[in-house]
Every structure is written in C-alpha cells, then in structure tokens.
Fold:
Amino acid sequence: MTAPADVRAGSRIASDWPLFGLRISTERLELRPPNDDEIAELARVARLGIHGDDVMPFANGWTDYPEREFGRRFAQYFWSQRAGWRVDSWALPFAVFVAGEPAGVQQVTANAFPVLRTVGTGSWLARVHQRRGIGSEMRAAVLHFAFEALDADVAITGAYSYNAGSIAVSRKLGYEPNGTRRDIVCGAPADALLFRLCRERWLATARPKVSVEGFEACVDLFCLDGEGALGR
Structure:
C-alpha cells in the first residue's frame, strides 16, 4: 500500500506532525503511525476478525462496537491519541504492514516518561496473520524503538489469562512476571497477568534486526535531549 503523499515525510502536514514520517522496519514488517485513509483500512481489517467469539482480549470491548458505530469510534480512538499528545504522557499507535498491506496495530504508551522511562505496549493482529511469528516481530520492533531510540529503562505489558498468544509473545521476548490485576471485561471479572522487561535483560537477549527512520524530527515530541538514544 502506498501512503498518500499529503501526509508523509516531507509534506506540509508531516512537518507540523513529524510522527507521520516515523518508520520502524523489520525483515517482514513496516510499522508507521497511520494517516486517516490507513485508519479506515485498519478498521476494515479489524472487522474481518481478530479473536474468537467466545473471548474478549480487550478491556474496553471495542471489537463488539455496533456496526453502525464501528468505523467512527475506531477512527476517534486514533484521533484522540493525536489530540491528547503531551511530551510527558502519550500513546503512539503504529499500523503494522505485511507485504504492504495493513495487518494490525502495535501501540506504545507512556506516562511521565522523562522521569519514569517506562513504556507500555498493546496490540491487535488480524487472525489471518496470527501464528506466523508476526505478533512477536511487531512487539520486538517497538521494543527496539523504546529501548534504542527513546532510551527507555522498562517496558511493561499485560494480557488476560486466557490470551495465550499474547502471553507467549511476552515470554518469548524475555519479559518476567510482574503480578496480576483484576479487571472488568464485558461485565465480568477477568485476571490480567502482568509482565515487565528491563533494559538490561532486553539488551542481553538475541533480537531481530530493526531499523528506525524519521526519529530525529520527532525528538521534541518526547521531551528528549538532543536526538535521543539513536543520536548518541
């Protein structure tokens, strides 16, 4: 998929919102903040199915939005992340592309990042792309971004006890257990298993090759000195 030129690197919009020029690439994937046309494509992909009807891996139950509301509420989520961005508290959803086609979303979030140096992650992946190692590859891509570009100290994540795929990815990437949290999902209690990955453990683990482009233009949005970790 070729992104519209009006929102990509070098364009007028990208100069004002440089995250549109950010790219993370792995052997099979490209991750980039989606423009509005790509948000609509991601909504189409999500409608095709992410999980079975008997489970709900998302606390807010967004995959159960009524069809008449789905596209609007899906887009509003992405718009709200842009509108609510602060240098010390942000959510950065990346669209994940496989062979140029949208396949899912890998998000990175942080609160009080300049002090805590901690990021969280969350994701979804179309069922057609599951069980191919793509979930691990896209998480590893944003972990590289967090530890190597943003100079994070810790990454945290969580998954409900019945979400075996997400838990397996966390364990594969070296996360360690970090307790549990009790949530309400679809009106019922659900236990979330929590995981934590420190910088030292990440650096000591074999990792896939990842490249980051366009980060230098985004440094001010993360309240980093100079050019961040990649600029040193």
Summary: Residues 184 and 221 are 33 Å apart (CA to CA). The helical segments are 12-16, 36-47, 67-83, 113-116, 134-149, 164-172, 199-203. Confidence is low (pLDDT under 50) at residues 1-7.
